[in-house]
Amino acid sequence: MAQIDAFFRMMHDLGASDLHLSSGSQPIIRLYGDLQRVKYKVLEHEELKKMLYEITPEQKAKQFEEDGDVDFSYEIPDLARYRVNFFMQRHGCAAVFREIPHKILSIDELKFPPLFKNLAMLPKGLVLVTGPTGSGKSTTLAAIVDYANRQRKDHIVTIEDPIEFVHEPVSCLINQREVSRDTKSFKSALRGALREDPDIILVGEMRDLETIELAIEAAETGHLVFSTLHTISAAKTVDRIIEVFPGNVQGQIRSGLSESLRAVISQNLFKRVDRPGRVAALEILVGVPAVRNLIRENKTFQINSVIETGKKYGMQSLDDAIMKLLREGAISPMDAYNKSVVKSKFREFLAEPPLDFTEV
Fold it and tell me: Do 145 and 167 meet the contact criterion of CB atoms below 8 Å apart?
């Protein structure tokens, strides 16, 4: 057993999501969203480097030496997988480990709306899960893909950096590809996937113009494509995709996106106050004809209004989702206020509402 495995077992037993090991600092875990120091000595560069290299593939260690940072995955059988990032900082090397559970939580276990099952069964189109780093996007996508794996008889190809949740074939054939290990890049893997007879393609992240363009093309040509973006709302997601492209082709991209977009799920995680753990608030945009028209006509600023009036289609705004969690007593008023969009809706729940300079 590697020396570092003891830290992983500790964070797993505590229910921590992340482990931070940094030269010049004690180990730190993230527990229910908050950072907490571990009672352990301050780590020195050479000691930590030796500990990290014990679990690092030779090629990844070489890349780290050359570039100063690297990503890969690490697994402890019967415990969990870990998404790993090494980087250099002022005092020496550092690493962050995100725990990826072996068990994939189902849509029902996550208490997601039934709409998510419908998204998993779509014949084609683009479904995006968005939100800030650490908001649970991978967990949401894994639940949707897992449902498809159990209910469909299709070919699923995933392109990830690194592979996070491992999907064992149930009713589907599943091929999971890891960037830098199995393929050069997201765009080369996505281009290749179009020739691999897939029905469902999961792209871990739409990072650049070409990857976005290929994802839209795949959705337009009869594939169901799932992917993620680091955006904070459904409307911002649409704007972000279009603004990546030069002005002379934005009209074409807008048209393609309007035809292919089936849903945007934008989420944020909150620390629970009723019991240990965290809970997600979801904004859901469904690609109904009214939404497609707004995208095509460059009127994305009206998307929020469609979400407010589209509850019968399963749509909901982020603020409505936050308000529901607040009224149920699951989250704190201050957390709800800080992460809401229209903060005036939540000021009445605060004993002493802060002066928000962004609204002055």
Answer: yes
Residues 76 and 123 in one domain: no
Domain of 66, CATH number, reads 3.30.450.90
Contacts of 54 (CB under 8 A, 6+ apart): 2, 3, 4
pLDDT score recorded for residue 356: 66
DSSP letters spanning 85-131: EEEEETTEEEEEEEEEESSPPPTTTTT--THHHHHHT-SSEEEEEE-
Spatial neighbors of 42 by CB under 8 A, at least 6 apart, are: 24, 25, 26
Burial grade of 168 (CB within 10 A; 0-12, 13-18, 19 or more)? exposed
Query: pLDDT tens, 169-209?
Result: 999 999 999 998 899 999 999 999 989 999 999 999 998 89
Task: For residues 76 and 13, give the distance between their C-alpha atoms in angstroms, rounded to a whole number.
Answer: 14
90 lies in the same domain as 152: no
Res. 360 pLDDT band, cuts 50 70 90: very low
Question: How many Å apart are CA 278 and CA 135, to the nearest integer?
Answer: 10
Q: How do residues 23-50 score in pLDDT, each as one tens digit?
A: 999 999 999 989 999 999 999 999 999 9
Render the burial of 180-195: b for 16+ CB within 10 Å, e for the rest: eeebebbbebbbebee
**Which residues have CB under 8 Å from 58's CB, separation 6+?**
none
If asked whether residues 161 and 29 sit together in one domain, one would say no
The boundaries of the domain holding residue 42 are 5-101
192 with 228, same domain: the answer is: yes
Summarize the confidence of residues 332-358 as an average pLDDT: 86
* Stated pTM of the model: 0.91
Contact 159, 189 (CB under 8 A): yes
Residue 334 near residue 278 (C-beta atoms within 8 A): no
DSSP 43: P
Mean pLDDT of the chain: 94
Question: What phi and psi values does residue 203 have, to the nearest 5 degrees?
Answer: -105, 115
Q: What percent of the chain has pLDDT over 70?
A: 99
**Burial of 149 by CB count in 10 Å (0-12 exposed, 13-18 middle, 19+ buried)?**
buried
Residue from 202, 208, 29 nearest 126 by CA? 202
